[in-house]
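Next comes a concrete protein, fold included:
___
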Amino acid sequence: MGAYQLQDQLAKISGKPIAPPTIYRAIEFLLKVGLIHRIASLNAYIGCPFPTSDHSNLFMICNGCGSVAEVALNSINGLLKSASEKANFTLQDQSLELFGLCPNCSSEQEQE
């Protein structure tokens, strides 16, 4: 969901307009506390299903319907940590975006 979509939905819920700076401050706070993630390629945000755990921010983005799923894999976390240590690099954050088809779009494509 993009910032403007969020602004529109909050305005509908509250029944009054919400100023863009308010939305961006809220997004900044939610990012900081780990409750949402930014999907850079979509310029959008997704709620985090694993807010209290250390995870790899691996996103699977469907080219068909645009849905996004977040996956946490300890093996990816370990690989990123190992690669960073090898390069004497202090990893602070990462985001991996994979593009393909979700199960629904895959089955629709097979039926065509």
The longest strand covers residues 58-62. The longest helix spans residues 20-32. The radius of gyration is 17 Å.
